[in-house]
């Protein structure tokens, strides 16, 4: 089998190459709020996974 020239992510990124960033970067307070939101979401995900395992659910490999 021949080696692939491009990965799928590069192909998709090529379709969006002409897009520009809109707006200004986040300031320090917004970055802290974003970080806390991500941490809260990740913590909730882990707690739900632990709760599901405690309820008898088993992970399914797809």
Overview of the structural elements:
This protein has helices at 8-15, 28-54. The two termini are 26 Å apart. It is mainly alpha-helical. The protein has a domain at 25-56. The chain has two helices and no strands. The protein is flat.
Q: What attributes characterize this protein structure?
A:
mainly alpha; 62 residues; 2 helices
The major β-sheet equals:
none
Measured between the Cα atoms of the first and last residue, the distance is 26 Å
Strand composition percent: under 5%
Q: What is the tally of beta strands?
A: 0
Helical percent range?
A: 55-70%
* Sequence of secondary-structure elements: HH
Annotation field: number of helices: 2
Radius of gyration over C-alpha positions, nearest whole angstrom: 20 Å
Structural class: mainly alpha
Mean pLDDT: 83
In the predicted model, the low-confidence regions spanning at least 5 consecutive residues are none
Which geometry do the CA atoms define?
flat
Topology, please?
Elements: H1 8-15, H2 28-54
Task: Write a concise synopsis of the structure shown.
The protein is mostly helical and 62 residues long. Helix content is 56%, strand content 0%. It starts with 7 loop residues before the first helix and ends in an 8-residue tail after the last helix.
